[in-house]
Amino acid sequence: xxxxxxxxxxxxxxxxxxxxxxxxxxxxxxxxxxxxxxxxxxxxxxxxxxxxxxxxxxxxxxxxxxxxxxxxxxxxxxxxxxxxxxxxxxxxxxxxxxxxxxxxxxxxxxxxxxxxxxxxxxxxxxxxxxxxxxxxxxxxxxxxxxxxxxxxxxxxxxxxxxxxxxxxxxxxxxxxxxxxxxxxxxxxxxxxxxxxxxxxxxxxxxxxxxxxxxxxxxxxxxxxxxxxxxxxxxxxxxxxxxxxxxxxxxxxxxxxxxxxxxxxxxxxxxxxxxxxxxxxxxxxxxxxxxxxxxxxxxxxxxxxxxxxxxxxxxxxxxxxxxxxxxxxxxxxxxxxxxxxxxxxxxxxxxxxxxxxxxxxxxxxxxxxxxxxxxxxxxxxxxxxxxxx
Length: 388
Ligand SMILES: [Ca+2]
Ligand SMILES: [Ca+2]
Ligand SMILES: [Ca+2]
What we know:
Blueprint: E1 27-32, E2 47-51, E3 56-60, E4 74-78, E5 83-88, E6 94-98, E7 103-107, E8 121-123, E9 126-127, E10 131-136, E11 149-154, E12 164-165, E13 168-173, E14 177-187, E15 192-201, E16 207-212, E17 224-233, E18 237-238, E19 244-252, E20 258-266, E21 270-274, E22 282-291, E23 297-304, E24 308-316, E25 321-324, E26 327-330, E27 333-338, E28 342-346, E29 351-353, E30 356-363, E31 370-374, E32 379-387
């Protein structure tokens, strides 16, 4: 076994001055700057790494002996959406997979003039015809100090930016249909960027309903949980089961919460799943997304909390270390876990307490030094040690 080259704890920042959150952590990507990179020379030999739970990417500059230099670690990208798997790719740009939104994101470095960033919003984005829509691109910007930006709009979706100018625009959609309305933002050096928003004229979203389970249902591991739902739509009437999609996730909340997808179902209006086993604190969320024939969705989510039990741990003598689910603590201590979850116990041996050495003897439930228990009720367990 080798000690990690660089480590950070759940509760700690990666470095003290950063803004990235703490609490959860899951290092999910590593990439070294490739030879011939177009990045500034300061990143030569650098190591980029991402944390899915914290939504951040950091960089550590190259140091002595070809190794990254931990003392130089800095945030490279804060607020990255679900970054997993970092890779350098075409054009020596840095790419990451956005696990949350199913996208591949590219981080591109430009020397000299940088393109502006286009941001458009629209209200409303759907409704009966004639549909009057207000557009706003005032959140657009340019990263170069002193650059000014101008706006051109393609509001009828014909690909021609000939419908309006200025940071805001207004358009009336007389005919039903789906339109991609775009703004092109151009800086005074000629670099441009585009953002777009879909407008559904003559359509309104459906209304989804989760009919089962109902709020307040609690579960223990393995409980069969039946679910059912439906959706109605002003234009389509009652939607078919094929228009209903479901997602089951565990929200794991050691401090802040992060999401584990358990299962998805496509095109059904009812089903069932066994309640999952997971470390506590955690709860499950079941989400129904109904989509009408025009592509407009509606989403409902129900939170289902687990039943819990308390496992209490002691040792004889008291004050020794026991491990529960891989985490050590000094006796006596207690852990709240999901009812009927399987929990791994270990009694490290030998141990030293007050200058005496102790060897593991037995667990009060007769289990081996390392064994698992099913937490079907509140339980107390004692590990007895023998003094040498
Ligand atoms: Ca610029
Ligand atoms: Ca146009
Ligand atoms: Ca509709």
